[in-house]
Design a protein that fits this description.
This protein has 222 residues and is of the alpha/beta class. It is 30% helix and 24% strand. It has seven helices and eight strands. It has an eight-stranded mixed β-sheet with strand order 1-7-8-6-5-2-3-4, with helices on both faces. Helix 4 links the parallel strand 5 and strand 6. It starts with a strand and ends in an 8-residue tail after the last strand. 35% of the residues are buried.
Length: 222
């Protein structure tokens, strides 16, 4: 786990698996706790719409889904732990989603049902050991947590969870935070100190990306 690849752009990895494929994008809107709608600002769904063969979005936020439908996207309102879309996909992408869920096990079971044999599940989630958490504890005695987050993961705990639900982890990546490398933020120590720590020990990275393949009946026969 100490020698995972460090990447600067998660889209490059996601694109390798999703290009030309049927893709289910879970948690495709981005509504913040204060009500600010930024569903198009993350760019993930927009990127997927350009590279995949067919794209379906799912989100529990009806207002965000309706806004995306008005822009021509195919988005369904559903709970990812209980949804039944009546079809299977080559890839499922869940960007910054699993840390919001009440029951990630139900989500993984449902994702397995919605994937074709040997399909891929791609997750991104904040790293529990993000360097900024430690710096904030030193400065303020606590960390800043998204109001809707229910849990934290690192590569070991996320892999353990994924392996319990008929998936095989293929690759895990550390994702660099872009702000840390932008010239306009070079004077900000709150970005530069984490960047230095991450360079020495990538386990302090801000985000991790996991790619897992669905294991099906054929796996047991090989």
């Amino acid at each position: 786990m100490r020698h995972l690849e460090v990447i600067g752009d998660r889209f490059e990895v996601i694109g390798k698996y999703c290009r030309g494929k049927s893709v289910l994008d879970l948690g495709c809107t981005d509504r913040r706790p204060d009500g600010e709608a930024k569903y198009a600002s993350t760019g993930l769904h927009l990127y997927l719409s350009d590279v995949c063969g067919a794209l379906t979005g799912v989100d529990i936020d009806p207002e965000g889904a309706e806004a995306m439908r008005r822009e021509g996207f195919n988005v369904t309102v559903a709970n990812v732990e209980r949804m039944n879309l009546g079809q299977q996909f080559d890839c499922i992408v869940a960007g910054e989603l699993i840390e919001h869920l009440a029951n990630p096990g139900l989500f993984l079971e449902n994702a397995h049902r919605h994937l074709k044999e040997s399909g891929y599940l791609i997750l991104t989630t904040p790293n529990a050991f993000n360097a900024r958490h430690f710096l904030r504890i030193l400065k303020k005695g606590e960390i800043k947590v998204h109001a809707e987050h229910t849990c934290w993961y690192d590569p070991k705990t996320l892999s353990s969870l994924i392996n319990r639900y008929a998936f095989a982890v293929e690759k895990i990546y550390w994702c660099r935070r872009k702000k840390w490398y932008q010239w306009r933020y070079l004077h900000k120590m709150k970005y530069q100190i984490p960047k230095l720590l991450t360079k020495v020990r990538p386990y302090f990275s801000g985000t991790l990306l996991l790619v897992a393949r669905k294991k099906g009946e054929m796996d047991g026969k090989r």
